[in-house]
Amino acid sequence: MKHIITAVGALALTTTLAQAGGLDRSGQSIASIFEDGDYVELSFGHVSPDVTGTAVAGLGGFSSGDMAGGYNQIGMAVKTKLNDHWDLGVIFDQPFGAKVSYPAGTNYFAQGSTAELNSTALTTVLKYKTDNNISIFGGLRYELMDAKASVPFVASYKVESDQSSGLGYLVGVAYEKPEIALRVALTYNSKISHDFKTVESSLLTGGADVAGTTSVDSPQSVNLEFQSGVAKDTLVFGSIRWVDWSSFVIDPAGYPAPSPLVSYDSDTVTYTLGVGRRFNENWSGSVSIGFEDQSGGFASNLGPHDGKTSITIGAAYTTASKLKISGGVSYIRIGDAKTSLNDSTTASNFSDNSAIGVGMRISYAF
To answer: What is the protein's membrane topology class (predicted)?
Structure first.
């Protein structure tokens, strides 16, 4: 039972927009540390959102056009078994990101606005497994992040940062019962503080560049990941992820608005539940669903999205030499949202939006 293969795609294939929950790209899973023996994996993914909205009649009633750009994801993991109790893993991922580009020439009030956030992280995890199948693990995460934005409808504001680095940590505990493929793992990821060197300009500065420093904390989070065999060659798996988005704020000193450039009213909790099935010694497949509840209120104009639902279908092929090739496709229904220019009245409505994600993972156990 412990060798059941599940194919959930190469990545956590979720749409990514600049709003609460939508900055979350990789999900920060440390599942590779639980692989048997020595293990290496490489993953690729692409997500293509389609997000449009319409301004209220008082702002012309114009359509925004598709304002969410597609993006690629890569990930890598290496894990080695040091002895019967100790395992060491190194994980590379791109935990947070955003890509926003409102088309020009639409007469929509935010036309021409752009925003981009990029991050990469390298995580080292050390795990100790006791004789009663309880594991304790922890490690350090080194994170790089940069961002830029252009918001013409707010005094022609522009900001661009350098690449900032920060150090955080993770700790966790897990319980395993290999004979029924049971594993439950709880992981806490700390916040990581960044001090960006920024250059800002707006009509308030006469278009002149002004240098400064902007402090941003990438959010802390908690992951609960689980799996269990429920019948011969059949596995149920899932996760619950909480992210502290209400503490995430990007507020450059020169931004000419009463509210921050980016901030969120609520944290997010994202649920995933799926089932995997091994068809024979080589082929397996899976299907999973995901859900993130709507928080209500107004969404950011740089991230007009509130909640989501998704379905992912995956398949995997494993060779006799333990080389595994897996792939998946996700359809994400993006939650409807309203935006505002003054935090009190509606400026636009975004509805009936979606995204498609595809991914591939190549892994080898030895």
So the answer is: Multi-pass membrane protein
Nearest-angstrom CA–CA distance, 181 and 234: 10
* Inter-residue contact 361 to 45 (CB < 8 Å): no
List of domains in the chain: 31-365 (2.40.160.60)
pLDDT tens for residues 130-161? 999 999 999 999 999 999 999 999 999 999 99
Under DSSP, is residue 134 helix (H, G, I), strand (E, B) or coil?
Answer: strand
* C-alpha–C-alpha distance, residues 199 and 207, integer Å: 11
pLDDT tens column, 296-344: 889 999 999 999 999 999 898 989 888 999 888 899 999 999 999 988 9
List C-alpha distances in Å: 331 to 263, 287, 313, 328. 27, 12, 9, 10
- For 53: left if phi > 0, alpha if psi spans -120 to 50, otherwise beta; the answer is beta
- CA atoms of 124 and 169, how far apart (whole Å): 9
Both tokens assigned to 332: 């994400």
